[in-house]
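Support reply, case 0932

Customer input (verbatim):
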Amino acid sequence: MTQIEILAPMDGMVMELEQVPDEVFAKKMAGDGLAIDITGELAVAPLAGQLVKLFPGGHAFVISTEAGVDILVHVGLDTVELKGQGFTTLAKEGDRVAARAPIVRFNREEIIGLGKNLVSPVLSISNGTITQRRSGPVHAGQDILFTLEF
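Our regenerated output:
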């Protein structure tokens, strides 16, 4: 078995997925992981790999490794409806990125002002089992959010 550490992509307070007020994430239909109630305004790569998907508007992205690990970072809930308002992409789909590389900057106050929740799921959407989960506060690119074994 191989283990890979997934870094917190944003500053904030860790939440279990079951606490996320969105059924798709809370019932782990999109994958297993944790969520972060964000306090910052930057999302970084939670691991090194290729930015295989950068959703239009920058509200979500997927990093994939050569080992077959795929991590989805979804900034906020229902933020797709903003069509990019409040988001600035800092990388391009297809880019190879280092862990901690800036991917998306977002205006926290503007997004909240538009009525969107900034609870942000970070999911493993590939094979593997999460063996260790973080709780409490995390800092983007500094703290391990969870460990994935595959």
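We compared this against your earlier run and they match. Two observations from our side: The chain has one domain: 3-149. The radius of gyration is 14 Å. Please reopen the case if you see a mismatch on your end.
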